[in-house]
């Protein structure tokens, strides 16, 4: 059903994601100094929603930091790149910049309606704009931001020639280790488009990890279809992620933040979200990064 939603409805899911992230930040689940710029009215989400968003944020962040920090030197993150498909109002680049962990290039793609709004907000708020450095240029009309380490472009990610063109415009280096993010995005596409995007990514980048987070059951037909294309794929449902992958100390910390008694619903809900990643790694770089099955 989601795949047949109107473009406006799909884009609205992004406003919802930003509002939910802000709800988590306000409650102390996680830190994000920028997401409030993207939300007009602060809304309080139920504890089960906050916990779900926290788990989603936490697993992506843990894998991304593992990717960025891997290597022998202190500035290994500078020889890597990140590509976010359907990035919405995600603010990860700005946080990585604050933490001194920004990669060589962080590229985000979304529909122009979304990237124009994002470009306008980045342009409006100095705390964001200054993270781009002196060479930045912003076009609200085109929905584009280009700076040394961060680039935002509009693209319908189903359009493979456009993906090629945008990667070229963004000056991504296909030979650098690349972390590709599809977070709550592929579910809106038809299966043929998802196949095409994953194939494109594995042909384009010589060493890449393709990370996805979706509301799917990893073992049902749709889940299998999505995961099938990922080489050397690893897939977990979010219950397993929450219980076994997220740091135990962090889990204890967030469990003290709010009264929580929806255990049965929590289990049911988390089993229907999944994280998967596939690795394309002929040179064994990701083995060295610790990404083993
Ligand atoms: N990845 C972000 C996150 O997790 O916060 C945003 C998720 S939001 C639920 C889905 C995003 O995917 C929206 O911003 C929507 O515009 C974008 N999207 C959906 N289909 C797309 C397509 N064909 N091309 C580009 N962006 C798309």
TrEMBL record:
Reaction equation(s) it catalyzes: [phosphatase 2A protein]-C-terminal L-leucine + S-adenosyl-L-methionine = [phosphatase 2A protein]-C-terminal L-leucine methyl ester + S-adenosyl-L-homocysteine
Keyword Transmembrane helix: no
EC number assigned by the record: 2.1.1.233
Keyword list, A-Z: Cytoplasm, Membrane, Methyltransferase, S-adenosyl-L-methionine, Transferase
One GO location term (cellular component): membrane
Bilayer topology: Peripheral membrane protein
Binding site for S-adenosyl-L-methionine: 56, 86, 156-157, 183
Signal sequence bounds: none
Subcellular compartments: Cytoplasm; Membrane
InterPro entries referenced in this protein's UniProt entry, alphabetically: LCMT1, Ppm1/Ppm2/Tcmp, SAM-dependent_MTases_sf
Single GO term (MF): protein C-terminal leucine carboxyl O-methyltransferase activity
Family matches, as Gene3D superfamilies: Vaccinia Virus protein VP39
GO biological process: one example: methylation
Protein family (similarity comment): Belongs to the methyltransferase superfamily. LCMT family.
Described purpose of this protein according to its UniProt entry: Involved in brassinosteroid (BR) signaling.
UniProt-recorded name of the protein: Leucine carboxyl methyltransferase 1 homolog
Organism listed in the record: Triticum turgidum subsp. durum (Durum wheat)
């Amino acid at each position: 059903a989601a795949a047949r939603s109107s473009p406006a409805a799909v884009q609205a899911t992004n406003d919802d994601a930003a509002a939910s992230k802000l709800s988590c930040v306000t409650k102390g689940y996680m830190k994000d100094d920028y997401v409030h710029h993207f939300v007009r009215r602060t809304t309080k989400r139920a504890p089960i929603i906050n916990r779900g968003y926290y788990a989603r944020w936490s697993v992506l962040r843990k894998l991304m930091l593992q990717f960025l920090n891997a290597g022998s030197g202190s500035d290994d993150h500078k020889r890597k790149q990140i590509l976010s498909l359907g990035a919405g109002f995600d603010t990860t680049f700005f946080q990585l910049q604050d933490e001194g962990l920004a990669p060589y290039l962080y590229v985000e793609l979304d529909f122009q309606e979304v990237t124009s709004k994002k470009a306008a907000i980045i342009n409006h708020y100095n705390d964001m704009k200054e993270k781009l450095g002196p060479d930045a240029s912003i076009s609200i009309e085109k929905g584009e931001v280009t700076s040394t380490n961060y680039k935002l472009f509009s693209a319908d990610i189903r359009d493979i020639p456009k993906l090629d063109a945008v990667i070229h415009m963004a000056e991504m280096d296909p030979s650098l280790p690349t972390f590709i993010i599809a977070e709550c995005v592929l579910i809106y596409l038809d299966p043929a488009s998802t196949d095409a995007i994953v194939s494109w990514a594995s042909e384009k980048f010589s060493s890449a990890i393709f990370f996805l987070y979706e509301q799917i059951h990893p073992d049902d037909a749709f889940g299998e279809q999505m995961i099938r294309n990922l080489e050397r794929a690893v897939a977990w449902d979010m219950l397993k992620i929450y219980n076994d992958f997220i740091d135990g100390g962090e889990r204890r910390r967030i469990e003290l933040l709010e009264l929580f008694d929806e255990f049965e619903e929590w289990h049911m809900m988390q089993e229907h979200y999944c994280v998967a990643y596939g690795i394309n790694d002929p040179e064994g770089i990701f083995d060295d990064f610790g990404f083993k099955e």
